[in-house]
Amino acid sequence: MSNHPVRSTTEVEVRYAETDQMGVVHHANYLVWFELARTRLCTQSGYQYHQIEDLGFHLMVTSCQVDYRRTARYGETVEVDAWLAELASRRLRFDYAVRRGEELLATGRTEHVWVDAATGRLCRTPEPLRGPFSRLADPSANADS
Fold first, then answer.
1. Domain holding 45: CATH number?
2. Residue 60 domain flag
3. What is the pTM of this model?
4. Bridge partner list, 110
5. Domain carrying residue 102
6. Distance between CA 51 and CA 5 in Å, rounded?
7. Continuous segment of H or E residues that includes residue 76
8. Which residues are catalytic?
């Protein structure tokens, strides 16, 4: 069995509003694309993000990093890969890669902690989400975990 994390790929057509006067994607938009890919990855756990919130929890961003290699431009289509690179009891790290075809444009990561929405306090991975998120990090994990 594989121990590689589940990957989610999201196709994004670069919109004019995401670019500067030269038609190059503004750096902040990569974080928006990361969020889009991350929420789609969460759906692959079996829970859409709004369902996680309905359970009374949030994934609060504590850190983000983007490494830029090449520019993306208005009218191009890019693919954003997201995967759960690290899973601890209270913390998660998602990694990302943005490509145009085979060309790597950017890589990045975001770190998150689980927060109890009612109290605003950090908490451990919510019980109903432990198995599903463990399987995102390692698809060979026992389905009963």
1. 3.10.129.10
2. yes
3. 0.91
4. 64, 94
5. 7-137
6. 22
7. none
8. 20
